[in-house]
Structure formats: structure tokens, C-alpha cells
Amino acid sequence: MAPTRQSELADLERKLFSYHQSHFQLSARVHLSHLTFEKGFRAWMDDRDNVQRLEKTLKIQGCRRLMGDNHVPVIVPRADWERRVSPRYGNGIMPSLNVDLDYRLRALDHENLIAAARKKLDPEDQWWIVDVYVTDDEEDQGLDRDLLQKKFIQSLKERYPNDNRPPDGLIYERINYYEGYLDGPEDRLAANNWWVILQAVVGSKKGEYLRRLFKNADLHQKLNSLLVIRGLWEGMHIGLLHKVTGMHCDEPMICYWDLIFQTFLTLVGGRSDLLPLIDGVTVGLIQARVPKLSANDLQFLQVQMNERRLFAEFEEEQRHEIWERLKQIDYPIPTLKTFFKDRLYLEVAQSVMKRLFIQPRDEKFTIDTGVYSIFDTAIPISLRKERLRADLLEFWRFSFQYGFELTDHQRRKCLKSPDNEHTPDQDTDQAFPLHRSAMWRHFCGILRARGFQPPGSMTQSSPAIELPRLVPCDYPEDPSQEIDAAKRCGKPFADTRQADWFALSAESLQQPESATRVSAAFLRRWVFKAFFGYLIDRDGSGTSGHRGSEADGAVRDLRTNTAEGHPHHPTAPTAPQATAEAPSDLSMFSSAPMVDSFTPLIPASADSLQLFGYIMHIKIGQNRETLSLPIDQRFVSEFGEGLTQHNFGVFVFDVAPGTGSDVLPGMTGGHISPDEIYTHYLNFPASELHAEFNADGPPRKRKQIDGETPMQRAMRWLEEQKAKTPGRMMPQIMDVSV
To answer: Which stretches does UniProt call biased (Low complexity) (predicted)?
Structure first.
């Protein structure tokens, strides 16, 4: 966004003002039936919410038709003026227009206001005020004058006095158009007008968020490919784009957007030229519906189809063909609105995955690339992306399955409490039986078993932690019930925990999909596939790729199906003209084999979990001890107080063999206060803290007490702590001096 030069703007304003003065004829009354509006991007994406808002406004305050701000600008070609459209003056305060019965005035603004007024005004009172502009015939204009006329019409069309503000979807499309990203020429002045609209609210950062997206070419281009489906864009949220780019989950998000495109392309029979005819009302009615599985959804959509609310702009024969395809959709129909809700669920898993590697300061790469980078081999990253996809798929699966248990994210309130469904869940009656630190140790065990090495503090070997077996279940328990369409997207609810855990287990995902209703388990499996279909082959398996020693080994190709330049998404039905091959079932996930030591076992008792506590390395002079602190807030807090009393400093280090000790970035910046130890372990349960005795402490602590030096007292205190932590590791003797 380049600043506008005042001289350039002043010249354009002068020309537009002069054009306005010379082409304005009069303000006059006209019957509403003579007004027609162009159906541009704004109208196609409109879901009619603003019309309903204006209907309520007019019902309260009535129609203010004489005020200038509410006048509708209309364009009349000079050849029609005084012939088919002419003024009629009388004794009223405003002249009227004589308009031929078959003639329609080209209106440029206030479409939603007029739509609301048509319902408010009585049949004999259906009139409005228009501002008439008579324009020259195109053949009588030169190039400059033709351009000026287009600028003038643009200035009339792009006003929104009766909207709350232009919707984000329209702002996004207009900025992209005037910035030259679409099929139009670059127009810096017009683009800047829209940048100003975007940032109209004081303190808004939407402009910054959009510019970040523009810097990510992959995400920007893929999102722009959905502009052809204009009805999607009422669901756009520019204020969330910083989340889209900041999560570094480009591959899953692009996969979801591909699924959106493939779904709508399939509905129109693979004809991309019909995609622009899908309007916002249609998208709003079909999103998240599963007509093949849900009798309620099918009945709802049948009513909408019969009343011509669905696919209203299509010919009747085309509507019939679309209906037959719509009935075969066996997953929640995705849209931009469902994407921004489901992104919240992806964010939970992303919070787990981002801890598996250290993001470099000078380079930002995606979560997938970061996880590939910790595979313990010299194979180039480019080859790892093909050969380790099954491993990555398994890590994402585990993060989705237990993301809430591994992080501080909260589920939504129970489905039984619709008024509080967005309130963070605080119930613990169904909490997972293992502590968070034990869950992290189990996850790290999975990583190491597959040859991946998390950063320093997570690589310390420990006995295998196994998860309790999951009981097959689903929600709602009554097989005749299903989850309502309005609650099928976003973070899952508190009372679906058990169903979610089992639905996303490897055991469940390895079974053929046999859903007969829209349940919690069905939705969890679907959203996982929606984001990670790029890691799944058309036959339903992840590309495991044997991890041999040869870097140039054979790599199985991801089978794709292209329709209009877009790869086919594994979960989407195939568009009729794209391929004759029916899509295979995709619920069979073939993961790389696990090491036997991680076969699931149930701990004998809760006490056995105490063997797996928080790791603390303690250094006094040349002596170093490694303790496993019990997972107990009171014990850890008292331990921290002891560190303070005995002159210890506490640090977060990344200790890698042969590299010495370096401060680990991305956690707490190195040094932490002893009273923050327990909080730190809660946030980073797999990390390892380091406490080092400070021989140069305060003078009062350097004095001998009862014949003991401060170091001797610290050693005695440490021996006392070792007796309280039976799960401690063997001491080490270090050659590093204090």
C-alpha cells in the first residue's frame, strides 16, 4: 500500500466534481418497480443479514426518502433521456419521472435499503427518490472521458451509507482487485480508499493482518482461488488472518481450502464456469450439512430447494442435477465460515506440534517442515517430506486426539448447555487419567521410536509411559439423535471427550468409515481428514515410505486428481468430468510400525505415575545431580523455596551432547525465578530445569554457620531432597569448574 500523493488525488477529485456537475440532471420520484441493480460481487456474497437489519430499522423509524444520503443514484444513457425517461414537474416539492413500462433505471447504490423498503411500504406508496445522471454514449467519448466515466460510476457504486460497514469479504476482493492480484488493472487510488475502509475503526490492525497474508504467496494465491465462488465470502474474517499466517500451518489450511473448492466444483458437475452463480444465501443454507447421512439435513435442504432459495440463479435442469449430487455429500459441507471455526480446533493441535522443534529467529517455516527437521538423519528436508508423511500424519493425529490434555486450551461447555457453549470448560469429571507430564513423555516416546529427536530438554530418555485403553463410544449415546448443524464446527464440547478420544485413536481411524449419522466421532474424524488429506493417499493410507539408509530410495507419489488446476482432495467426491474413477475409502490410515516398547499398557496404579516427575538438574561445584521431582505443587513450591534459601539460580538450558550448554529460546528466556518453577513445568512439562549453586551470593550467606560453609549447607540440603525423591537418577561428576 503506497501513500496517495495529494496532487494526484486533487486532480482526480477536480475531474470527478466537474463530471458530476455537468451530468447531474435532477432529483426525482420514481416507482420502485423501475429500479434494477447490477449483481456484482457484493450482491453474490450477500447472505441477506443486512437486509434483515434494515427491515427492523425501517419498522422502527420508517422510511426517510427525501434525505440526500438515501437518494439512489441512477444512470440514464443520453440516447434514452427525454425519450424513454423524462421529468414531469407538478406542484409537489419534488418532480417525478415518466418511465416507459418496460424500462429499468440502472441503480448504483442502496440495494439493501430498497429491498427492505419494498417490504415496509404499502403497495400504493412504493416510490423513492433518485438522483439522475445522464451519461454520454460510448462511441461519442474519447479514451480519457471513457475512463473518467468509469471512475465516476465507481465512486457512486462503492459507497455504503446504509451498511454497518462493507463486509470483510467485499473489502478483501476489492483490495485484491485494485492491487492487481486479480484480472483487473492496478489502481492505487482506489486500492487506498479500500485500505482506509479496512482500517476505519480506531486501533484496528486488519490492514496489518492483510499485508501479512500478501507476503505469504502460497496462502494468498490459494485463498484468492476461492474468489470465483462469490457466495463463500460472507464468511471472511480479515481480523483473523494474523492467526492464519501466524500458526504456520500452511499445508493443512491449503488442504481445507482445496476441499472447499472441490466440494462446490463437484456440485456444479465440474463446470468451473458455473461456480460464480453460487450465491451467499445458498452457501449459508448448505454449510455444515451432511445430506447423505442426516435425514433432517436432507429434509431441510429439500424445502429450501423447492422454494428456490438454493441455487436460485441456475436453470431448472441444472438445479435438478445439482440436487442429485448434493444428496450424495457424506461429510459436512465446508465453507470459509466453517474454516475459521475449525481453525480453532487446528490451533489446539498446533500448540502441541510447535513444541517439537525450535523455530529459528531469522527464518520462519511451517510446522510440518519444523517437525521434518528433527528427524535424526542426513536425508534432505525435500526427501523427508515425501518419505516421512505417515510419521507426520501420526503426530498430528495424536495432537488432535489429546491436544486439550497436552495444553491449556479448553473445550466448549457441554452441548446440553446451549446458552454457555462458548464458555471454557472447567469440568474435570471426565479428565484424562494421566497427568500432562506423563502424556508428554508418552508423546516423546512415540517421536523417539520413529527416529525423531525433539529439542534438548525433551530428549532425556525415560521409562515408557503407556496410555489407558479407550472404550469404544460415541455422542449422542442415542443412535437416533445427531449433533445440530450449528454446532458441528469449531472446538469440540466437554461432553464429547470420550467419543473424541476414541474417534481419533489409531484403532478407530484404521476401521472403514461406516457412519450412519452426524455424531461427535464422525465430526472429529472428518475435520482431521479435512486438514490432513494431503498426507493421505487416495487408497486411504499415509505415504509411509521405508526409511532406509539410501537417501535416494523410491518415494511413493501422492496420487492427485486435477480439475481446473486444483488437486483433488481425498475426502471430496470426484467431480463428474474430472475422473471416472470413484474415490476410495479414506479412513484406513496405514502408519509406520511402532517400536514394541510402546505397546499400550495400563499403569498398575496412580502411584506408579510418581516415577515420572519433573526433571531438575542441580549443580554444586563440580558435582551434578539429576532429580525427578514428584508431580505435586506443594512439594515443588517448597523445593523452590529451598533453592532460594541455599543460593541457587534456576535456568532453562538446551544441553546437547558435545555442544555445551546454551540457553533454550522459546520458553522463558534462560533465567527464571524459583517461585515460577511449578508454573513453568505446567506449561512445559517435558522440559528440564537447571539449578546452579552461586558461590558469590549475598555476604550474609558466605559466612560459616555452625562450622558449615554455604556450599556445604547446600550439599546437605540436596542430600535431604534426594531422600524425598526416590525416582531420582544417578549422580554425575562434571569436569566443568564453577
So the answer is: 571-583
User: In the numeric block, which cell numbers belong to residue 519?
Assistant: 455424531
DSSP state of 68: G
Place of cell 452463480: 277
Percent of the chain residues topping a pLDDT of 90:
38
Q: Are 75 and 138 in contact (CB under 8 A)?
A: no
Residue 48 region by backbone torsions, left for phi larger than 0, else alpha for psi between -120 and 50, else beta: left
Q: What per-residue confidence (pLDDT) applies to 449?
A: 84
Q: Which of 462, 463, 734, 711 is nearest to 625 (CA)?
A: 734
Could you identify the residue written with the cell 460481487?
A: 41
Sign (positive or negative) of CA dihedral 517, 523, 527, 533:
negative
pLDDT tens sequence across 9-27: 787 778 888 887 788 889 8
Say if strands 72-77 and 127-135 run parallel, antiparallel, or are unpaired: parallel
pLDDT, tens digit, 9 for 90 and up, residues 262-278: 999 999 999 999 999 99
- What are the structural domain ranges in the chain? 6-166, 336-558, 613-733
- The string of DSSP codes covering 480-535 is T----GGGSSSSPBGGGHHHHHHHTSHHHHTSPP---S--HHHHHHHHHHHHHGGG
Burial track 338-370 (b if 16+ CB lie within 10 A, e otherwise): bbbbbbebbbbbbbbbbbbbbeeeeeeebbbbb
Radius of gyration of the chain (CA): 33
Is residue 260 a contact partner of residue 232, using CB atoms and an 8 Å limit? yes
Do residues 186 and 179 make contact, with C-beta atoms less than 8 angstroms apart? yes
The model's pTM is 0.66
* Predicted pLDDT at 62: 84
In the chain, % of residues over pLDDT 70: 77
Q: How far apart are CA 310 and CA 639, in angstroms?
A: 66
pLDDT digits (tens, 9 = 90+) for 549-582: 332 332 233 223 334 445 567 677 766 644 333 3
Cα angle 101, 105, 106 (rounded to 5 degrees) comes to 150
Comparing CA positions, the residue from 254, 269, 338 lying closest to residue 526 is 338
Question: What is the reported pLDDT for 149?
Answer: 78
Cα distance between residue 242 and residue 235, in whole Å? 16
DSSP calls for 558-613? PP--EETTEEPPTTSPPPTTT-SSPPPP-----PPPPPGGGS----S-GGGGGGS-
The closest alpha carbon to 87, from 33, 130, 142, belongs to 130
pLDDT digits (tens, 9 = 90+) for 310-356: 999 999 999 999 999 999 999 999 999 999 999 999 999 999 999 99
